[in-house]
Amino acid sequence: MTEEEKKRGEAEIQRWLEVGSVEIPPADVRIVTSGGRRIPVHSTVLASASPVLESILGGPHKGRSRGREIPILGVPCDAVHAFVHSLYFARRAYDRCVSATEEEMIGEHGMHLLALSHAYRVGWLKRAAERALSLRLTAEGVVDVLVLSQRCDAPRLHLRCMQLLSKDFAAVEQTEAWRFLQDHDPWLELHILQFLHHAHLRRRRQARRKAEQRLYAELHEAMDCLRHICADGCGEVGPSGRLLPADARPPCPNAVSCRGLRQLIRHFAACDRQKRQQHGCRRCKRLWQLLRLHASICDEVDDASCKVPLCIQFKQRMQEKEGELEEDEDERWRLLVKKVASARVMSHLAKRQSQVLV
Predict the structure, then answer these.
(1) What is the pLDDT of residue 10?
(2) Of 289, 332, 331, which is closest to residue 280 (Cα–Cα)?
(3) For residue 243, how many other CB atoms are within 10 A of its CB?
(4) Under a CB-based contact definition with an 8 Å cutoff, are residues 104 and 85 in contact?
(5) What structural domains does the chain harbor?
(6) pLDDT at 140 over 70
(7) Which positions fall inside the BTB domain (predicted)?
(8) What's the pLDDT tens digit per position in 308-348?
(9) Diameter of the chain measured on Cα atoms
(10) Which of 156, 258, 298, 345 is most buried per CB count within 10 Å?
């Protein structure tokens, strides 16, 4: 069938579907199902909807299609009837939006319609069947749908099945379909297990990345609180040590972090210096690292304007070490500084975006 004949056939079908426009001609072809049922159809509809059916109708009996029979076997009669019904009516609705009735019909016979649309190369119906099966996947039937998606070359449906397997594999293992798969298709079982293993590793990497991002965000908040405590004072006591009235207290950016940081500073001031030098104090080391981290990301142009203690000393020490050979510890420290600075930039961008939206 040429392109001109196909367009003329589609235009004729369009006129048939418009109620009362023209009289529908009699069917000239019959579809034979597995149960011996014969469904009368029009050769023009079949040829316009499927290139496979077009080649069948254009075979040795081309031009003498009246009274011909095309067998569609291996699927239930109702599924064949839904397939033929879709070829007639659902194409025009699918181009705009599939109606609720058509969607229900495709969902009811989704697996058979996927197989038929793949075999007869009806692309739009195949996509509709894929979507319907994706929305109705369950742990009980996901293995059967997965096997069908492989045989019918449906990658989107295949991925959706694998995602469900990864999410609820414990329930899938209890199904009869999974036990049958283990006995008869070990290669597919291996493929599924490999996918589950990679998915598990991917979730672990994502969890580790999220934990690192939370750590960098907390360190960024600690830097803000340290600058806030040293420059503005926090709570009832100002930076000079004097008691502040309630109306003169600056707002605290993060009350929980500031309270913990103030306790760390008080411990550092009261900790025995000799004990700290001989045995080492974990809390004092933590504050020392926070002060060093602040100096590494401090963007004050004038060093004297920074109120955080030891900021100038740490900056001078870092400048002296610039010409020395890089050690692993220094490299890790530079990476930490880079990540915290990145978290700081992302936090500022998020605040600016929220202000614009408000």
Answers:
(1) 54
(2) 289
(3) 8
(4) no
(5) 1-136 (3.30.710.10), 217-352 (1.20.1020.10)
(6) yes
(7) 27-96
(8) 888 888 888 877 776 554 555 677 888 888 888 888 778 77
(9) 107
(10) 258
Tokens matching residue 243: 């008691």
Close Cβ partners of 355 (under 8 Å, ≥ 6 residues apart): none
Does residue 172 register a pLDDT over 90? yes
Place of tokens 């070829």: 87
Q: Which residue has the higher pLDDT, 188 or 340?
A: 188
Q: CB of 88 within 8 A of CB of 45?
A: yes
Residues 6+ apart with CB under 8 A from 88: 13, 17, 45
Integer Cα distance of 4 and 218 in angstroms? 68
Q: End-to-end distance of the chain based on CA atoms, in angstroms?
A: 61
Global pTM value: 0.65
Q: Over 70: is that where the pLDDT of 229 sits? A: yes
How many other C-beta atoms lie within 10 A of the C-beta of residue 200?
11
* Neighbouring-strand partners of residue 337: none
Say how far apart CA 32 and CA 40 lie, in whole Å: 9
Nearest Cα residue to 139 out of 120, 157, 115, 164? 164
Neighbour-count burial of 237, counting CB atoms closer than 10 A to its CB (0-12 exposed, 13-18 middle, 19+ buried) = middle
Query: What H or E segment, with its residue span, contains residue 38?
Result: strand 38-41
Q: Which helix (H) or strand (E) holds 39?
A: strand 38-41
pLDDT digits (tens, 9 = 90+) for 39-98: 888 888 888 889 999 888 886 555 555 568 899 999 999 999 999 988 887 555 444 455
Tokens of 318: 């870092």
Structure-token match 């798969």, residue found = 181
140 backbone dihedrals φ, ψ, rounded to 5°: -70, -35
Cα–Cα dist 290/337, whole Å: 11
Provide CB contacts within 8 A for 39, sequence distance 6+. 30, 31, 33, 80, 81, 84
pLDDT of residue 20: 45
